[in-house]
Design a protein that fits this description.
Elements lengths: L11 H18 L8 E8 L6 E10 L2 E8 L9 H15 L4 E7 L4 H6 L3 E7 L6 E8 L2
Parallel strand pairs: 3-4
Antiparallel strand pairs: 1-2, 2-3, 4-6, 5-6
Protein name: N-acetyltransferase domain-containing protein
Pfam family, one: Acetyltransf_1
GO molecular function: acyltransferase activity, transferring groups other than amino-acyl groups
Length: 142
């Protein structure tokens, strides 16, 4: 029998044991048809300093791209960068053989934006965080 031990911050060996075991299990169940998950980024760079100021990160696995994080600094909002980032993410996803993109967003973030650019809501969690909701979107890529 194994004992359960709480780690407030996962030890790297713990994370590796969980991730490696899960990836091996998933590869066996999917008969190795999909490559290992990978993470990509589309960075927004300051043209003067070259520093990253925002952008998006996404994980590609099992024929879909999951947009993990998307951030555009306040001073750059309203200039079409969100649409450009998502269009580029869709292009990258297609180039990597994905058939769809999914993501989640809070009600105080951008559910209307994702609907506007063709994403369909497939679920929501009410009162998460309290007083708000979390929305899940998907867009098939053809």
């Amino acid at each position: 029998m194994a004992e359960i031990v709480f780690e407030a911050e996962p030890h790297p060996d713990t994370r590796a044991a969980i991730l490696d075991g899960l990836l091996a299990y998933n590869a066996a169940k999917t008969e190795g048809r999909f490559g290992a998950p990978r993470t990509i980024a589309l960075a927004l760079k300051d043209p003067e300093t070259g520093a990253s100021v925002g952008g998006l990160t996404a994980r590609v696995s099992y024929s879909r791209m999951f947009v993990e994080l998307l951030f555009i600094p306040e001073h750059l909002r309203g200039k079409g960068l969100g649409e450009k980032l998502m269009a580029e993410a869709e292009k990258v996803a297609k180039d990597l053989g994905c058939i769809g993109i999914w993501l989640d967003t809070f009600s105080f973030q951008a559910p209307g934006f994702y609907k506007k650019i063709g994403y369909q809501e497939f679920g929501a969690i009410s009162d998460y965080p309290p007083g708000f909701s979390r929305h899940f979107f998907h867009k098939p890529l053809s």
